[in-house]
Amino acid sequence: MSSSKHLLILGFAVLLTSSTSFAQGKTGISVKATGVVKLRADVLELEGQVSGNAELAGDAITKYRSNRQRAVEAIEALQIPSLKVNSGRIEITSAMDAAAQQAMMRGMAATASANRPLSVSEPLSIRIDGIDKLTNEQIIETLVKILDAGKDAGVTLGAKAGQPAYNPYTGGYNTAGAALARFRLSDVEGSRQKAFEDAMKNATRQGERLAKLAGLKLGKVRSINESAAATSQTQQFNPYLAFMTQDADKEAELFTSPSLQDITVSAVIDVEFEVESEAVEKAPKTILKGI
Amino acid sequence: MLRQSPWAVFPSVIGILFVLSLDGIFTPEAEAQVQAFAIVNGVPQVDGPANAGILAVDEAVQNTLTDFERHAERNDWQKAFRVLENLPPEKRVGMLPAGNGFMVPARVRFWRLLVEANAEGRAAFRLFNEPKAKQLNEKLQKELAANDPQSKTTAEVIFDQYFITSFGDDAANLLGDIAFEKGDFADAAGHWRSIVDYHADTNIPLPRLMVKSATAYIAAGRVGEAESILAQLRQRYATDKVTIGGKERLAAEHVSELLGKKSAATLAANAGHGLELPAGSLQPSWQVPFLSKKGNTLLQATISSNSYYQSGLGTMVPNYDTDGERVYLNWMGIVFAVDVKSGKLLWRTDSFDKLHPHFATMQQGRVNLSQYGIQVIGDRVLTTALGLDRLNYWQPAIPLTSWNAKTGEKQWSVGGEQNGNISYLGQFYPWKGGLLVVTHAQQQAAMTLNSVNLTSGASDWSMPLGTFQQQNNPYTGGSTFSLPEFAEVGRQLCVMNNSGAVLQVSPTEKKVDGQFVLYETKQTTDMQNYYGNQSLPEEKRLHTRGRMLVRDGLLFLKEVGKSEMFCVDMQSQQVIWKRPTISSAMIVDVDDQFVYLMNSELAAYDRITGKLQWSLILPVSGGGLSLVSSGDSVFVATRRGIFEIGRQTGRVVRIVRTTETDSDGISMRVIGQYLVTVSNSAVTGYKLADLPAPASPPPTTPNTP
User: Fold this and answer.
1) By three-state DSSP, how is residue B565 classified?
2) Which of A64, B298, B329, B540 could form a disulfide with B312, with the two C-beta atoms 3.0–4.6 Å apart?
């Protein structure tokens, strides 16, 4: 464990399968190994939305500008170091008026009316880097400050929109009780590299163990493949989200957590080792039967 | 056109009037008094039809008008005026649509036809009518010389029927002088302004008329019109002088000075009602809960188990009123009084807990929650409420009850099931020692305006107001009615029926003598259907209602559930502006700059143009929408504290935290040295002069007086 990097973590070998074998028709040992690292999240993210709704476009813009300015000012006034407010796309939509909604509910055709209200909205993303340097207490305090400022400013903050909880009993999506914030890793690639290194160590160790059992000596790596990693159930995983988000965010989305806990990054590899020829000759006949 | 003016003596009289009136006009007290002075629009008021209600068009008069317009369009003025001759003035009665939603007296409509005629039409009119006007003018001179009071009537005839002859301007000037002398400033301004606008060849100096008009407008509180005249003076008559009080001075300079005095008086008036909140949080001096914790638990459980019904019961803030010493509340039929200084519960008509078993009935829509009105007049508290034992009745009639303000003793009760099944709508208006209230027979939509005698509860007089639109109650199959709104413009009483019209009522003559129809086509209500999976509509959650407020002689109004907001001049029958807003929003205040609308947003619209100036979202959770205005700030109470908002910028200046974080709806009012808030569960007093005390639970007044 390296306290200087605030990394928790554990490299421990998990052998998912004992699928060690000698390759058919070749001399070698194949292993599947997993490397797992648990890292402290260093990024806190909240999502909010500012909007302006009105029948007149001018009014909608005025409201949107006013609401946005107020929300951004209120959050920036907290003077939290490394806090950034990122704006996203601006959407201009024309909502269906109440009469049209009523008509649709009655199964009637909704007539478009000229006075449909206009909505100008923009998602705001609030990001704080370096939270791995803060204690849990400090993180919670910071989070509460932001949420309070958001409420005062009339902006509802929460986890990223589009992640409603699916209710399998009703078949609907329930946003009640949704997480308010997300915790994630900023350096996903580096984290995965650590997991692969750990997986490789585990693979070597596993190969040596098997070779020793067989009275063989592990040789060079003949081939190596990456396998799909299993995902921890406690970790937020939305396979569809990865397709919906931008490329750069795809992988990052896979390593986020709705709760303040360590983020698990895992890597699974299939490695095939050669077996040194001298050792093969000395191996018991029964073991070499299948080679 | 040069001729001797018969009113050569009037300038000096008017000069004296101006000087004498200045001291009184530009004070806050005078501003308040101005509201009581009469109106009119520069055009004569006429005797309307004897019947009342929503006014109908007189078809015979309408046909004459149509024929006149048809001939006028072809420039066939001879035929046009012959049509008019066939309808003599005494038959020009009834009401005619003005084309902008207003119904105006027929004589006013015909007057406008004349002044809007083109040059050829005017010449033709003079050719036919100048001799008659001259005759009338000679009669008028004799009456003036003899100091005969009939002279005013004669001048009105000249003005009404012969305004565009060479004698109409002098008649208008005389009528303006008379109105000014009587204190009917808007009427005076209207008459003088009509000369400037429609009698270009007058021999009365236009700068003088404009100065007179501006002075009258300022006196009537209508600064906007005065500023418009000032701009015209600076542009067209920058060097023209007028004689005021024997002194000659520049016309524009004089009006500018008057406007400056008016602004100073307004500022002084506003400064006197300052609301200064302490820094940090605000600790209550006292609190009287009427919805106990046990009651609230029961209420929430009732709402949860009856979630199909969307009554808004959980966010209802009771109506309240004050006499400056006590605050009186009507909590769904339980009326009680709290001393503002001590927070002591002085009296109540029933135990608060007795309401608990009836929450389900209320939630299930059997009760119209807006029916619980309250008004303090002198030592009486007037309420409309249904007895708890009648809550389960179908469409019960609501009685009006008077209580002794000091003791809570019941004085009288009228209407209701046991008194003729007359139902009183819960919105009152104190009027000349009595109380104006609208009633209807049970399950009937025909409304009657009553002046209730406060001593006996009997109706001193009544007049029909026509039919109000009924709203379908989807849960009971019955009907409910929106509450009317009252406002005075000058001496005219306006009643907004929340059914698409504002009625101009003359209580002295007991008739409706004008109306403004808000919508050209019949409006359908959007919220007639309810679905169990719908969220509570914002109108229901915030308990918004239609409002009509008066500022500087103009009406600002918006009906409940409709998105249009109007600024109308009832005196000149003109729509100044109208604009779409949010249907769930309610007008909460109008000041000298802005009209404030509130739902879950507070929005400020420019009072002159109707343009949205700023808007901000507030954590408003329930009913009791209200706003307190002070200096450069406006204050709104929310469950997250009292928001102080910059009036010009719409920016939150600060948030003063209170302890009412659990409230679902808060209303706020400054009463003496106390800021009193009424939430859906408690009445709370905050002493404004005190610095914030250390945090401690507020003293709770026991539930028994």
Assistant:
1) strand
2) B540
**Alpha-carbon dihedral of residues A274, A278, A280, A285, nearest 10 degrees?**
180
What does the alpha-carbon distance between residue B347 and residue B345 come to, in Å, rounded to a whole number?
6
Secondary structure of B408-425 in the HEC alphabet? CCEEEEECECCCCCEEEE
Q: What pLDDT band is residue B692 in, cutting at 50, 70 and 90?
A: very low
Contact B148, B139 (CB under 8 A): no
**Distance from the A173 Cα atom to the nearest Cα atom in chain B, whole angstroms:** 14
Tokens describing residue B82: 């012959």
The Cβ-side half-sphere exposure at A171, using a 13 Å CA radius, reads 0
- From the candidates A59, A73, A97, A115, which should be mutated to test the interface with B, based on the most B CB atoms within 10 A? A59
Model pLDDT, residue A251: 59
Tokens, residue A23? 């390759």
- Are B502 and B515 within 8 A, CB to CB? yes
As a whole number of Å, the end-to-end CA separation of chain A is 41
pLDDT at A193: 92
User: Does A52 contact B531 at a Cβ distance shorter than 8 Å?
Assistant: no
pLDDT value of residue A252: 60
Give residue B12's pLDDT.
42
Nearest CB to A66; choose among B524, B614, B619: B614
CA distance B220 to B190: 11
Q: Do B651 and A70 touch (CB under 8 A)?
A: yes
Taking the C-alpha atoms of residue A4 and residue B327, their distance in angstroms, rounded to an integer, is: 65
Contacts of B614 in chain A (CB under 8 A): 62, 66
Cβ-defined contact of A54 to B582 (cutoff 8 Å): yes
Q: Which residues of B touch A63 (CB under 8 A)?
A: 601, 603, 612, 615
Collect all residues with Cβ–Cβ distance below 8 Å to B533 and sequence separation of at least 6. none
CA atoms in the 13 A half-sphere facing the CB of A272: 11
Taken in order B296, B302, B304, B307, the sign of the CA dihedral is negative
pLDDT digits (tens, 9 = 90+) for B134-159: 999 999 999 999 989 899 999 999 99
Closest CA relative to residue A43, chosen from A257, A282, A268? A257
Phi, psi of B259, rounded to the nearest 5 degrees: -65, -35
**Residue B357 confidence (pLDDT):** 93
Q: Given this model, what pLDDT does residue B471 score? A: 79
Are A52 and B583 inside 8 Å of each other by CB? no
> Which chain A residues have a beta carbon less than 8 Å from that of B281?
none
- Give the integer Cα–Cα distance in Å for B222 and B32: 13
Q: Give the model's pLDDT for residue A24.
A: 45
Torsion angle of alpha carbons A231, A235, A240, A241, nearest 10°? -140
Three-state SS for B20? Answer: helix
- Report long-range pairs for B77-80 (Cβ below 8 Å, ≥24 apart): B77/B117, B77/B120, B77/B121, B77/B124, B77/B125, B78/B124, B80/B121
pLDDT exceeding 70 applies to what percent of chain A?
66
Tell me if A55 and B618 make a contact (CB, 8 A cut-off).
no
Would you say B486 and B494 are in contact if contact means Cβ atoms under 8 Å apart?
yes
Per-residue pLDDT tens over the stretch A233-242: 444 444 444 4
Among B579, B603, B618, select the one facing A154 at the smallest CB separation: B618
Mean pLDDT of B317-327: 95
- A interface mutation test: which of B535, B599, B615 has the most A CBs within 10 A? B615
Q: What is the pLDDT of residue B646?
A: 94
Across the interface, do B581 and A55 touch by the CB < 8 Å criterion? yes
Structure tokens that stand for A81 in this block: 């170091």
Does A230 or B147 have the greater pLDDT score? B147
Answer whether B197's CB lies under 8 Å from B210's CB.
Answer: no
